Amino acid sequence: MTSAKISIIIPVFNEATIILDSLHKLDRSKDNVEIIVIDGGSKDKTIELVRSTGVNLILSPTPGRAKQMNLGAAKATGDILLFLHADTHLPANFPIIVKKILERSPVVAGAFELAIDSQDLRLRWLEKMVNWRSRFFSLPYGDQAIFLPTKVFQEVGGFPDLPIMEDFELMRKLKSRGQIAIATTSVLTSPRRWQKLGIFRTTLINQLIVIGYFLGISPHKLASWYRGDRVVSSK
Questions:
Q1: pLDDT digits over 75-123, tens only?
Q2: How far is residue 154 CA from its own chain's centroid?
Q3: pLDDT value at residue 163
Q4: Separation between Cα atoms, residue 96 and residue 110, nearest integer Å
Q5: Are 178 and 108 in contact (CB under 8 A)?
Q6: 75, 85 in Cβ contact below 8 A?
Q7: Residues with Cβ < 8 Å from 53, sequence gap 6 or more?
Q8: ∠ at Cα 180 (108, 3), nearest 5°?
Q9: 5-30 burial by CB neighbour count: b if 16+ within 10 A, else e?
Q10: How confident is the model at residue 29, as a pLDDT?
Q11: Coil, strand or helix: which one is 176?
């Protein structure tokens, strides 16, 4: 696993304001790491900006984060897949962390703890709740940079084709195969979605979506509620 190649897969949609910074913070000089950006039909300058960096860019024929990530995984050449949101930054030593975690048996997948790039003390409590949930239930979400061997991803059929909760369903499938480990190191994610609607409202909406999903409400209806029938970025 030490010499394994890592493919970082980044789904994007209208991320022109942050994509250059996100890609520049990924150290592309690292050995055995490839970066694949999959665009879901951006109308801003995201595609042009990604191309200017020389990063491998794939244009998805249909939008949707699950579709985009599955397409990226199908094109990846790495032994390990790491799914990264455009507004989330990896720790500098992520290749070592990822490979060491996946060497442990019976680990089949992993993710990082979550840190939010804000001085707001209320978000420290939110971080604690997210990280406790991730460890206690073995249930990290997509903004924690989920990673797993390519072979395992293929065996479980990738992300289910859902408009929302695709990361949740992938974790449920993986838990039946082995352990999901959470690194003690954090990724750093943007506070933008909490800033847009407010911390309490955003957290409440997220929890209601999870409850609704468990109650059997259609994922398409939940996605419409979550987005408020508006176009949003890839979170």
A1: 999 999 999 999 999 999 999 999 999 999 899 999 999 999 999 999 9
A2: 17
A3: 87
A4: 13
A5: yes
A6: no
A7: 20, 23, 24
A8: 45
A9: ebbbbbbbbbbbebbbebbeebeeee
A10: 67
A11: coil
Residue with tokens 């897969």: 9
Contact predicate 12/40, CB 8 Å:
yes
Cα–Cα separations (whole angstroms), residue 30 to 15, 36, 57, 172, 175: 24, 15, 19, 32, 30
DSSP string, 10-78: EEESS-TTTHHHHHHTS-TTSTTEEEEEEES--SSSHHHHHHHHT-EEEE-SS--HHHHHHHHHHH---
CATH number of the domain to which 68 belongs: 3.90.550.10
Q: Any residues with CB less than 8 A from the CB of 174 and at least 6 apart, and which?
A: 108, 109, 148, 152, 156, 180
Measured CA to CA, the distance from residue 48 to residue 154 in angstroms comes to 31
The answer to whether residue 210 sits within a structural domain is: no
Structure tokens at 182: 């959470």
**Would residue 173 count as lying in a domain?**
yes
The tens digit of pLDDT for each residue in 125-158 reads: 999 999 999 999 999 999 999 999 999 999 999 9
Q: Which domain holds residue 53?
A: 6-192
State the total domains in the chain. Answer: 1
Look at residue 45 and tell me if it is in a domain. yes
Tens digits of per-residue pLDDT, 7-18?
Answer: 999 999 999 999
Q: Is residue 207 part of a domain?
A: no
Dihedral, 76, 78, 84, 88 alpha carbons, nearest 10 = -130
User: Hey, what are 9's tokens?
Assistant: 């897969």
Provide the b/e sequence for 138-157 (b: ≥16 CB within 10 Å): bbbbbbbbbbbbbebbeebe
pLDDT, the chain, mean: 92
**C-alpha 152, offset from chain centre:** 17
